[in-house]
Design goal:
Layout: H1 14-40, H2 44-72, H3 76-86, H4 95-127, H5 135-147, H6 149-168, H7 171-198, H8 203-211, H9 220-233, H10 240-245, H11 254-282, H12 292-304, H13 308-341, H14 346-366, H15 381-408, H16 411-418, H17 422-447, H18 453-487
Length: 488
């Protein structure tokens, strides 16, 4: 433990953190993005690579962020500064904390617009506004929703207000209590849709699509997409997990907690596929319809199925809750920093942040309508927010966290915080020093278009194989020597 550890609110229990972190990780990425990416990149082969990447890249970095947060007991800026000071390092490392906090805020600035789509479609499903005979009709509805700044802005404002109300109530009474019913409610609605899908006529086809491994269907682009999504789906390097980790009780195991969150996040993603694809297949639609799968193809499928309106309402309630649990986590780092460092009450910090967020999200929202011609280097404000966060700040932040924990912090401090068995600690250290940084670098290089996709993917797998072989050799060789010496 660190000396003079700052007093800080903590989750009421380990499951409070698990539900909050899982809510942060799940979001629209799992229910919206994961199904359509699976459809685009060939099904089961993509899912398998995604699972491997979760274990090799996502879990080690997540453990690192939680450990840094709990050790430093503060916002990303304060936590990293305290941990680095304990190890006698440079305060410049706290710049990664600033970047993580800013990254989460910028993500939320455009995320509330996307989240607003979920709430808008929930209302359309309830009021009968999702009526059409083709995907083109549904695309027209989607376009009309975005073209109206008052409608689109109103829904994104609703998401902003709901987020600040919850965050303003505090860690236990606001965040923990809210995710305590939203996450189980989301899982129950997914289960209801999966049970329906079992009798829809398309369930078997969906299972084969999700879990049949066909190597021929896996492209280099698909492998890189799987790695990128595995990193981003866990809300890494955005300040959310590190801040949530700062509220984790000392008695909670970081290793078990991280694996629980990763498994829960992955299960929700797979459940979303098992809920969505049976409906798509039963209605003769294609699973590879891209981002329009949720907002165009699926509403059309709901129209054609028995009790489709009811299941459509359930689905968009679930999607709205997923969006809200993520938006809560993205703003918590900023609110925590203002509360800890500026003497501002949590409620005032939440609403002050909310006002700035509303202004930023309004600019992002206008990219779809009256600001459609406002571009810089061919990108709208919405696109720039997405580009800066997902392609620059998150990969660089994740790389910084890995290098800091793997090479620059005192080994005893990290070992004490993780409290893993010797073999598991050696595995974590190997992954966070070599495998995870390599994966992040490849994501970074590919996202910037520095090298061709095929070359990047082939280089990635070759390097991973060499590193794993080297690492295993280094890990096993001391044991082998001890065994040989004992026999000798």
């Amino acid at each position: 433990m660190t000396t003079n550890e700052p007093s800080r609110t903590q989750w009421l229990g380990r499951w409070g953190f698990v539900l909050a972190a899982t809510g942060s990780a799940v979001g629209l990425g799992n229910i919206w993005k994961f199904p359509y990416m699976t459809g685009e990149y060939g099904g089961g082969a993509f899912v398998l690579v995604y699972l491997v990447c979760i274990l090799s890249v996502g879990v080690p970095i997540m453990m690192t962020e939680i450990a840094l947060g709990r050790r430093g007991r503060g916002s990303p800026i304060d936590a990293i500064r305290r941990v680095v000071q304990e190890s006698g390092g440079s305060s410049l490392w706290s710049l990664f904390g600033w970047m993580a906090m800013l990254c989460g805020f910028l993500i939320l600035s455009f995320y509330v617009v996307v989240a607003g789509w979920s709430f808008a479609y929930l209302w359309k499903m309830i009021s009968g506004g999702l009526v059409g005979s083709s995907v083109d009709d549904m695309a027209a509805i989607f376009g009309a929703n975005n073209a109206n700044p008052f409608s689109l802005g109103g829904w994104s404002t609703l998401v902003t207000v709901a987020t600040m109300v919850i965050v303003g109530k505090g860690v236990q009474q606001g965040i923990e209590k809210s995710v305590g019913w939203m996450m189980p409610g989301m899982v129950i609605m997914l289960l209801i849709m999966i049970v329906y899908g079992m009798f829809s006529g398309g369930f078997g086809q969906a299972v084969h699509f999700l879990f049949d491994f066909k190597a021929s269907s896996l492209s280099s682009e698909g492998m890189l997409a799987a790695m990128g999504h595995a990193f981003f789906t866990l809300s890494l390097a955005s300040g959310a997990i590190l801040t949530y980790g700062s509220y984790l009780p000392r008695r909670a195991s970081i290793g078990r907690t991280t694996l629980t969150v990763a498994v829960a996040d992955t299960l929700v993603a797979l459940m979303a596929g098992l809920a969505i694809f049976p409906v798509i297949f039963a209605n003769g639609m294609e699973p590879n319809s891209g981002p329009g799968l949720i907002f165009m193809s699926l509403p059309l499928a709901f129209q054609a199925m028995p009790m489709g309106t009811l299941f459509g309402i359930l689905f968009f309630i679930m999607l709205s809750m997923a969006a809200l649990t993520s938006s809560i986590s993205m703003v918590e780092a900023t609110v925590s920093w203002l509360n800890d460092n500026k003497g501002i009450s949590r409620k005032a910090a939440a609403w002050g942040t909310g006002i700035v967020l509303w202004l930023m999200s309004t600019l992002a929202m206008l990219s779809f309508n009256i600001g459609a011609d406002w571009t810089l280097a061919g990108k709208h404000f919405f696109d720039w927010l997405d580009f800066l966060t997902s392609r620059l700040m998150m990969p660089l932040g994740g790389l910084g966290m890995a290098l800091l924990a793997g090479f620059f912090l005192k080994s005893e401090a990290v070992r004490d915080e993780l409290d893993l068995p010797a073999g598991m600690h050696a595995l974590w250290l190997f992954m966070v020093r070599y495998v995870s940084p390599l994966g992040i670098l490849v994501i970074f290089v590919d996202a910037l278009g520095i090298v061709a996709v095929d070359f990047a993917a082939h280089w990635l797998w070759l390097a991973l194989i060499l590193i794993v072989m080297t690492g295993l050799g280094e890990t096993l060789s001391p044991r082998l020597r001890r065994t040989l010496n004992a026999k000798g």
